[in-house]
Design goal:
It contains eight helices and no strands. It starts with 8 loop residues before the first helix and ends in a 20-residue tail after the last helix.
């Protein structure tokens, strides 16, 4: 029985060039965020105070004003029940309506999986909310990781991935980044999350969405990319 022929060096180099982006994405958007999340989770689990949490909370408290109160309450609401959740549903329904089955699966798994991960993590770590002052928008659930930060980052990552191969890449990237930062800052300003809750939520969401992307869009199957051969339909 003859052995299978070894792959040629040229073939391997061609494969590596075509898949280098996957290794970069795996490292930068999965392994690094997971490492940061694990470090934060260890401190939270051991009930340790992170050195930057309270100073940043008090810094935001020093900016308090009636105008900022109203602005950040609105942004916080848009960062969850009045913004993120409706947009999540709208994106999945729009993709289903366009018959983009793979993209719809990616978005659905990204959104639902992120929400489930957040609920599970909150119950596992059971971190109490900050209590440095009485918040104008109090919360009763656990604190780590931030659901608002995780939900907004999940929405942003999914939207950027879907738009990356279109002319809307940079507008979506800039708008998504601004939205994530605004929502996350609102939670610190309102005194309902530690900065480490925000960072943990960002990392968990980014790692999850990127992992789902790498699983569903293997072999160069990326959102909105079309077959180049004449007569073939767009990839699902």
């Amino acid at each position: 029985m003859s052995a299978a022929p070894a792959e040629s060096p040229a073939g391997f180099r061609h494969w590596l060039r075509g898949n280098a982006w996957r290794f970069v994405l795996l490292f930068a958007a999965v392994l690094v965020p997971l490492g940061v999340f694990a470090a934060l989770a260890d401190e939270v689990h051991e009930l340790e105070d992170l050195f930057f949490d309270e100073p940043l909370l008090w810094r935001m408290r020093g900016l308090e004003s009636p105008a900022l109160d109203g602005f950040f309450v609105l942004v916080s609401r848009l960062g969850y029940q009045y913004g993120v959740i409706p947009l999540d549903v709208l994106i999945v329904l729009a993709l289903l309506g366009l018959r983009r089955w793979r993209e719809a699966t990616f978005a659905g798994f990204g959104f639902v999986g992120s929400a489930l991960l957040n609920m599970g993590a909150k119950q596992f770590f059971r971190r109490d909310r900050p209590s440095l002052w009485e918040s104008i928008a109090p919360e009763s659930t656990y604190s780590f990781p931030s659901g608002h930060a995780m939900g907004s980052m999940t929405l942003a990552a999914v939207a950027i991935a879907l738009a990356w191969r279109t002319r809307w890449r940079w507008p979506v990237l800039l708008l998504a980044a601004a939205f994530v930062v605004a929502v996350s800052v609102s939670r610190i300003y309102l005194g309902v999350h530690y900065p480490s809750d925000i960072l943990g939520g960002w990392c968990a969401a980014l790692a999850w969405v990127t992992g789902v992307y790498l699983v569903l869009f293997r072999r160069h199957r990326r959102p909105w990319r079309r077959h180049r051969q004449a007569g073939l339909p767009p990839q699902a």
